[in-house]
Amino acid sequence: MTARTARISRRLTLLLTGGIVLLWLLGAAFSVLVMQEEIDEVFDSALEETAQWLLPLATDAVEGRPASSPGLLGEPDNDDEYLTFQLRSRDGTVLLRSHDAPGAPYTGTLDLGYSESQHHHVYTIASGNYFLQVAEPLWHRQEALMESAGALLLPLAGLVPVSILVILWSVRQGLTPMRLLQGAIGARDGGNLNPIEDTGWPEEIGGTVQAVNRLLLRLRAALEAERVFAATSAHELRTPVATALAQTQRLLAELESGLTQEEAQARGRRIEATLHRLGALVEKLLHLSRAEAGIGLSETENNLLPVLRLVIEELAMQPEAARQLSLAIAEGASLRARMDIDAFSIVVRNLVENALAYGDPDTPVEIAVPDDRTISVRNDCAAIPPEILSQLTQRFVRGNRAGEGPDGSGLGLAIAETILRQTGGRLELLSPVLGQDGGFEARIRLSA
Questions:
Q1: 157 near 174, Cβ under 8 Å?
Q2: Which of 49, 70, 58, 66 is nearest to 128 (CA)?
Q3: Burial class (CB in 10 A: 0-12, 13-18, 19+), 195
Q4: Residue 110 and residue 89: Cα distance in Å, rounded?
Q5: Residue among 240, 251, 250 at smallest CA distance from 275
Q6: What CA–CA distance (Å, rounded) separates 154 from 161?
Q7: Can you name the residues that pair with 368 across neighbouring β-strands?
Q8: Are β-strands 325-329 and 94-98 bridged in parallel, bridged antiparallel, or unpaired?
């Protein structure tokens, strides 16, 4: 968990720093574009104003001096001049120029207004037979633009490392509640499943704390249920095992004392019945284990009606189902649901076996499919009190048998209810049956 927190810190730091740098670069690029337009406007205006100011001066200077080679205006100095000029005649001859201006004409033609040569931005203005060209080196504007862009980008050199440190510190401070929650969760184990104090946490973590507390409560309830289940299972298994062992030991002792064949066969049948009961209990425990493992839900929708028919046919062939099993399916009814076929067969088998075990042996068990989402299993018996009916889906809770025979395992209804709950369905228990004074009905409601 520590390594994950460190990776989150670094990732957030890099993302936030990168975002700041990117926004700064985008802002600087936009500013450079704006400055380029402004610099062009300012320098073009300077060229135009300089030309208008120099034209009469240069014209007077040329007219007041004898015609000869091109003259120079002004005193030479060691400073670089950004603006230079040439006064030219109509035929293009250079009559007068500044000290830093080239001797050759700036341009081959004398077009009025702004133009550009290989090395200069040029502005041309005319008066009579004279043309004045004021020029600015191309590199001058580029240099001004680069200096302005550098002034915008230079702070990044100091901003990036400072931003990394500030953001890293801020992120680590912001993740402090997560580290505290990590420690609180780490302190929980099998001996300490107490809820985490849910006050004082930031709003973003409060929901996580509540979810963890709900998980801890469910885990504690599950562990407690497992402890009870293990203890009860051991007790339930110990009784038939001890009974079978005692009867076997008695059989051996009586065989030595001259037990008759009929008595030995009767004793053997009692041992066989006890072992059958033990096997049935083990099978129920395996069913419950599979149910709790979450076998109920299927990824695809299955047709469960053939499965229902097959389970009823198999149960009808067993000796304990000697009385008739009645299956009634409404016309057009279909049972399609996202439920595992094996899980569905376990649910139906347990409900029908429960009805056979606790129902009146002289009355058939009625299985009905009244619609596409409902299966009901009814048996005749005395009405079950509401306080007992509400507990029948708990493990190892048994009702009163209507006939002779050993008690059931007390797991059938619990298994059916667990599987149906996993699939989004539900198990409804009714007693007495609607319209009767007695009876018991287990009703399956499949999920839509």
A1: no
A2: 58
A3: middle
A4: 10
A5: 240
A6: 13
A7: 328, 376
A8: unpaired
Across 167-195, average pLDDT: 81
CA 94 to CA 96: how far, in whole Å? 6
pLDDT in tens, 101-126: 888 898 888 889 998 888 888 999 99
Q: For residue 28, what are the contacts with CB-CB under 8 A and spacing of at least 6? A: 149, 152, 153
What would the two tokens of residue 142 be?
A: 């580029």
Alpha-carbon span 196 to 206, nearest angstrom: 11
Task: Of 377, 357, 393, 352, give the one whose Cα is nearest residue 443.
Answer: 377
Cis amide bond preceding 364, omega within 30:
no
Burial of 173 by CB count in 10 Å (0-12 exposed, 13-18 middle, 19+ buried)?
exposed
Name 23's Cβ contacts closer than 8 Å, sequence gap at least 6: none
Q: Which residue has the tokens 């068990």?
A: 365
- Quote the CA–CA distance of 46 and 133 in Å, as a whole number: 13
**Helices 138-174 and 176-186, packing angle to 10 deg:** 30
Q: The pTM is what?
A: 0.48
Q: What is the mean pLDDT of residues 288-311?
A: 80
pLDDT tens digit string along 240-278? Answer: 777 777 777 777 777 777 777 777 777 777 777 777 777
Evaluated on CA atoms 221, 227, 232, 233, the torsion sign reads: positive
* Mean predicted confidence (pLDDT) in 326-337: 89
CATH topology assigned to domain 295-445:
Heat Shock Protein 90 (3.30.565)
DSSP 226-237: HHHHHHHHHHHH
d(Cα 197, Cα 208) in Å, to the nearest integer?
12
Phi and psi at 140, nearest 5°, equal -65, -50
User: Which of these, 424, 429, 421, lies nearest to 448 by C-alpha position?
Assistant: 424
Q: How many CB atoms lie within 10 A of CB 47?
A: 22
Q: Are 356 and 320 in contact (CB under 8 A)?
A: yes
User: Rounded CA gap, 66 and 71, in Å?
Assistant: 10
Cα–Cα distance, 292 to 418 (Å, whole number):
7
Q: What percentage of the chain's residues is helix, strand, coil (to nearest 5)?
A: 55, 15, 30
For residue 199, the 8-state DSSP code is S
Q: Which amino acid is at 315?
A: L
Burial of 2 (0-12, 13-18, 19+ CB in 10 A): exposed
Q: Tokens in use for 122?
A: 């040029």
Break the chain into its structural domains and give their ranges: 2-160, 193-293, 295-445
- 203-228 mean pLDDT: 79
- List helix spans (H) across 257-302: 261-292
